[in-house]
């Protein structure tokens, strides 16, 4: 039986999006303070409670959601804010098609909700689309070769705005590296990411850059 790791409905996603849209993005991209007291005060200014550090900082929001502020380390620029809307892990390879179908269904449900707030995405499509967009900064999603091999991101919708410092917003249905195959158990997830500017001194992380 597949293990459900995260399952937030579209209403919960919209709650977090509506709280994030008015954020002072340049202040966020500037980075997380290294001093613990200043870090806690910085988080409080955004309405967040710091949880733990891991390639940046995990925080709890006012609405009891969890966000990952992706950064190469304390004091380094925050390059993305990530929200895991749905995630499942299979325990046998024969579940992989079901996981892929479920991820696609959840993705479309969340996309329908996001359209009510963000409007139509600038681009939306599947992993094998010939015009699949380039990432907003190097390494933000897999290379074309890896995307075509693993079908990841399986689907993507992206929004971009002209406001200075505003993030590029991407909703993705993601597959684990074995999910599109038939030999090993896989996993799938639906994620919303607010992408910021690249770190001027990027650090490699599992095939991508912070």
Salient structural properties:
210 residues, alpha+beta, two-stranded antiparallel sheet
Helix/strand/pairing class, anyone? Answer: alpha+beta
**Tally of contiguous helical segments:** 5
What is the residue-mean pLDDT, rounded to a whole number?
93
Percent of residues in beta strands: 25-35%
Radius of gyration: 17 Å
Residues in helices, as a percent range: 25-40%
In total, the number of strands is: 11
Major sheet, described briefly? 9 strands, antiparallel
- Helix-strand sequence: EHHHEEEEHEHEEEEE
Oligomer category: single chain
Shape: globular
Poorly predicted sequence stretches spanning 5 or more consecutive residues: none
Distance between the termini: 34 Å
- Total domain units: 1
Fold and architecture overview:
By secondary structure, the chain is α+β, with helices and mostly antiparallel strands. It has five helices and eleven strands. The chain has one domain (1-201). A hairpin with an 8-residue loop joins strand 7 (155-159) and strand 8. The protein is globular. The mean pLDDT is 93.
Itemize the secondary structure elements and their pairings.
Blueprint lengths: L2 E5 L2 H11 L4 H5 L6 H11 L2 E5 L2 E5 L5 E5 L9 E10 L6 H23 L4 E4 L17 H7 L4 E5 L8 E8 L11 E9 L8 E2 L2 E2 L1
Antiparallel strand pairs: 1-5, 2-3, 3-4, 4-5, 5-9, 6-7, 7-8, 8-9, 10-11
């Amino acid at each position: 039986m597949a293990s459900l790791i995260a399952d937030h409905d579209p209403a919960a996603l919209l709650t977090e999006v509506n709280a994030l849209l008015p954020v002072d993005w340049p202040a966020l991209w500037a980075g997380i303070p290294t001093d613990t007291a200043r870090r806690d005060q910085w988080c409080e200014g955004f309405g967040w409670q710091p949880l733990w550090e891991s390639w940046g900082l995990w925080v709890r929001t006012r609405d009891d959601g969890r966000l990952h502020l992706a950064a190469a380390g304390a004091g380094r620029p925050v390059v993305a804010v990530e929200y895991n809307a749905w995630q499942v892990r299979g325990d046998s390879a024969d579940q992989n098609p079901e996981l892929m179908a479920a991820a696609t269904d959840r993705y479309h449900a969340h996309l329908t909700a996001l359209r009510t707030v963000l409007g139509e995405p600038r681009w939306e499509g599947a992993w094998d689309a010939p015009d699949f967009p380039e990432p907003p900064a190097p390494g933000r999603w897999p290379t074309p070769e890896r995307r075509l091999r693993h079908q990841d991101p399986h689907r993507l919708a992206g929004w971009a705005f002209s406001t200075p410092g505003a993030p590029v917003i991407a909703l993705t249905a993601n597959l684990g590296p074995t999910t599109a195959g038939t030999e090993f158990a896989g996993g799938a997830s639906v994620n919303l990411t607010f992408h910021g500017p690249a770190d001027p001194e990027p650090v490699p992380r599992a095939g991508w850059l912070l």
